[in-house]
Amino acid sequence: MSAETADMAADKTEKVIRIAGSITVDELATALGLSVTALIGELFKNGIVATINQRLDFETAEIMIGELGIEGVRLERKNTATQTSEQRRELSDHAVSRPPVVAVMGHVDHGKTSLLDNLLHKKTVETEAGGITQHISAYQLEHDGRKITFLDTPGHEAFAAIRQHGAMLTDIVVIVVAADDGVKPQTVEAIKFAQGANAKIIVAINKIDREGADVPRTMADLSAHGLQPEEWGGDIMMIPVSAKTGENLEKLLDSILLIADVEELKADVDIPAEGLVIESHMEVGKGSVVNLLVTGGELKVGEFITAGGSYGKVRTMVDFRGKPKGKAGPSTPVTITGFKELPNFGDRFLEQKDEKTARKAALLNAQGAADEAASANVTSTDLLRMMNAEDNSKVFNVIIKGDVLGSVTSVVDSLKMIDTKGEVTLNIVATGVGDITENDVYMAAGDGNTVIYGFNVGVPTNIAKLAARDGVAIRNYRVIYELLDDARNSMEKLLGEEIVETDTGEMKVMGVFRVTKTELIAGGQMLSGRLTPGVLARVKHGKEVLGEAEVESVQKERIDAKELIENEIGGLAMRTEKKINLTVGDRLEFFTREKRQRKLGE
Ligand code: GDP
Question: Between β-strands 15-19 and 73-77, what pairing exists: parallel, antiparallel or unpaired?
Fold first, then answer.
């Protein structure tokens, strides 16, 4: 199935080559209009000995096109049976309106959770005893008699993961910015994400009840990042709100509905149900518990569905409050049980005719995914490693445990996004849902340098002790960005140190007083910068470097001085390792030399 040939869709300006999983050297050469030998030659230059039938994965093909300097060609992933997620299906004439799907994003502590909570409590009636205690990944509320679906996710990375799977999940992204803090790194990330996902943006300028709140300044800040407020002639609605007092939250909801109207969001209901897996975990007594967002058709209890390589019969279905639901239409988030195995976060689910068809489709999907993974003999990781001539690439081994499958996927996907320019290879030894176990520790200990990352999980005391005994690092986080920072730092440590030289000043030699094998005493005038005892000096005769010396002391008017600055005249004593024949008119270039931890991507 993965042995598909590239097909081309001619475009006036750009040629698109669609690749399902991998492509052979022969197919890629043909698609690029190149001779096979030319492509094999280029691969060879990059250290890969390939044959005509060798398969290259998507990323490798992309890198090769870049290396060859070919322009006007774009690679696209062709969906296979695994991901039947065509961007958005063509709608029929009788498609009906559907609620908007909204994601709330922004910098940590700017009030995303408070905003979602406030809306949830304001707008939904908690009928169930105990209310909402579960990890909710999505909910729906009503405003003006119309529904709005809100998504809550472990982080932007989760959305990125879904996007990788080719699906468009959110119609509108509400970017929350605290009016007393302004635009921060994750705000910028959220803006980029929303733009990349083609979602409409609304900004909620939050915490306006706070003393330091400055709405115009926040708007200016946003405007500098490409979001122009409507008030200033731009096209982005920016609503000053307070998640604490509830001020203007109605207005925020009005704006969401306004955008939904303009966008004319629709879906077909008379088609087999389809949608996305937005959360999944195992529960004692229930088996697989899976949160789905229906995007088309109507899902009903008793129907058979597949998602990736998993299938099942919808045994129970409840809404986000835990209230039983017989059927769920487009934009509705539901929680179901009945999948035989846990599907993956971001998998597309599809209704199937009967059990037999469902089983067969799941099997095909699983097979397709396995084929795809196995079919590429040259992967981009190999390529990057080979391109890195000295192959000094380091390997960072990790085991990842998360509370739910969604968070594991998020962590994995975000770790993969750390750009190490091929210098550090991330090796995911294992992943899993649940607390850190003895087995994880043994696995890590066996490897020597494996780090166990936990995300929202527990570390039982005996396991922590075991890890301490075996020298295994367990790092447990509740905030994904902190986990990522730690991983980035650890990867940087693998890069080791580098030597950095910094120029500090320059002197013209006007007198040479003593030259021995180990000592050099001279005087001169500072041309620039400054001279302090302890720095190093490069001795230059014209362009030629005569040698290096270490400045031991500095004198000004024959008295020891702490420094000489520009234009000042003074003397200096230097220690050398060999005799340097310094003469009047030579230059001394002063500099410091430090060891510094290398940074990723430098
Ligand atoms: P998140 O990290 O973006 O989900 O932020 P939270 O919702 O957890 O909010 C971070 C902190 O800001 C909490 O202490 C909230 O109580 C507080 N907070 C959130 N919204 C507001 C608001 O509108 N006004 C004030 N005064 N505090 C707020």
Answer: parallel
The helix/strand/coil state of 436 is: coil
The CB of 206 under 6 Å from ligand 1? The reply is yes
Alpha-carbon separation of residue 393 from 45, 396, 496 (angstroms): 19, 10, 11
Q: How far apart are CA 410 and CA 241, in angstroms?
A: 29
Please give the single-letter amino acid code of residue 336. Answer: I
Residue 209 C-alpha to ligand 1 middle, in angstroms? 11
User: 125 versus 74: which is more confidently predicted?
Assistant: 74
Query: Is 103:96 a contact under the CB 8 Å cutoff?
Result: no
Query: Which letter does DSSP use for residue 78 in this model?
Result: P
Angle at 290 between CA 363 and CA 20, to 5 degrees: 40
User: What residues form DSSP beta bridges with 313?
Assistant: 304
Task: List beta partners, residue 324.
Answer: 318
d(CA 487, CA 394): 14
Q: Indicate whether residue 174 lines ligand 1 (CB < 6 A).
A: no
Burial (CB < 10 A; 0-12, 13-18, 19+), residue 508, is middle
Q: Which residue out of 105, 112, 114, 152 has the highest number of ligand 1 atoms within 8 Å of its CB and is therefore the one to mutate?
A: 114
104, 107, 109: which to mutate for ligand 1, most atoms within 8 A of CB?
A: 109
pLDDT tens per residue, range 388-416: 434 445 788 899 998 888 888 888 888 88
Beta strand residue intervals within 107-191, DSSP E:
138-143, 146-151, 172-178
pTM for the model stands at 0.56
Query: Using CA atoms in the order 511, 513, 519, 525, what is the torsion angle rounded to 10 degrees?
Result: -20
Question: Among all chains, which residue has been given the structure tokens 């203007």?
Answer: 248
| Contact by Cβ (8 Å): 240, 205 | yes
Tokens for 410? 């998020």
Q: Which residue has the tokens 């899976």?
A: 290
